[in-house]
Automatic annotation (TrEMBL):
InterPro entries per UniProt: DUF4403 (IPR025515)
Organism name: Nitrobacter winogradskyi (strain ATCC 25391 / DSM 10237 / CIP 104748 / NCIMB 11846 / Nb-255)
Protein name: DUF4403 family protein
Pfam families named in the record: DUF4403 (PF14356)
Amino acid sequence: MRSGFKFKTILLGIGILAVSFFVSLKAMDWLSPHGIDKPALAALPPLPPVNRSSSIVVPVKIPLTLIRDAAERAAPHHFAGKADNPAAQILQNADIGWTASRGAISATGANNALSLSTPLTGAVKVTGSLSANAQDAVGNALAGVLGGDIAKHVGRVNIKNLNANAEIKGNVVMTAQPTLAGNWRIDPGITAQVNLGDTNLSVAGARLNVPSQVKPVIDKAVNEQIAVLQQRIRDDPALERDARRQWAQMCRSIPLQDPAGMPQLHLELKPVRAIAAQPRIDARNVTLTIGVEAETRITTAATRPDCPFPATLALEPATTGRLNIGVPIDMPFTDINKIIEAQFAGKTFPEDGSGAADVTVKQVSVAAAGDQLLISLLVHAKEKKSWFGFGGEATIHIWGRPVLDQAQQIMRLKDIRLAVESEAAFGLLGAAAQTALPYLESALAERAVVDLKPFVSDAREKIAAVIADFQKSEDRAKVTAEISRLNLSSIAFDSTTLRVIAEAAGSVNVELKTLPAL
């Protein structure tokens, strides 16, 4: 009877002890901190202003058909003039007049030369009378044929009026080899050649060669017009005027849309140098390549950059059009915390449950320190060897160095290692919990990544906003601009912001739709 009482007492004591133990464990869980115990880190200096070199090189295509149409409008359709008397000993009071009309102009291009040609048709009209010597010669000829008496009866021959006509056929070929000068002017380098078919005109027995008589005066008329045209093109400030307008349009501060909680940022464009290449001419276009080198930087307030227009144009070898613009992608660490926490919060390691303890991540925080990032994790560890399942919460700290993965467009961590302070925390959780550490480190190396694709997409939109003005087609030109690729070039951070520099590459092309009057 007494021994039974003792046994019941022992069981009751064990029960009370067990309940007290479990209550103590729950009390410890309840009383233990539920937030991340963040270490004190030295504040990093703020990120410096970003100043990148950007360039925009634009091939401006002028279709040969456009040049042909402009020449068609400008060139006169009809020509007329007078030629000198080539046979004064035969003709007197001679009037040698010519008229010519041109046909449609055609344009061809090859070997960096532009040719414009047009057919010519017209007529030469000669009027006048025979000279005294010519009349005596005619009278003597009649006396020899008819006899002297008859010639006396005919009397002195007096031919007062002569009228003869001949046809003009040929063409005019104008060749231009334009060159660009450093003073923003174009030298057209125009030469012309008049070609006439071999036709002859007989006047009172005198044979006149039409090309030799008419070509010099047509040459003179054509060359006079070309000289005027060349000087007009050399003096034309159209290229400089358009460049000044585009230069002033580029020189500005463009507001950028940024993540919530970040200060309003602006992209400052400051053109500093104008470049160009000599014109290239092929079978379809005259291509004038012109470009701008600019400094781009991010500022926290709108600026008014000073961009003096360059007096000279830097001439460089011919190149294809290109667009290179660098912009930063700024991400606050509060956003990075959300990204990393979404990948780990609620996850238990080892994930297959094969370890002696389960370590569950409850919260994650990322902070910058030196050239590394410190990932702080609030974890709950529970050992599985004993029936009691001892465990608790602790904050562990893991170091990692951020690097860019260009191919995947992500930021991942390398050189991951457990901070010294975390070893003590794992010691409090027990040796069994330490067996989960390699799994956790491996998971961080594999999964602690920041997917930059959404940010890259945002950067594309920012750059697209920068070149939006180039994509606006005006009445005079059709402009196309596109971004072909976006590279992530570098990474930097301070205590609050992680910055990735994105460099966009693309192309801009311009095709003129109208030309000013020649």
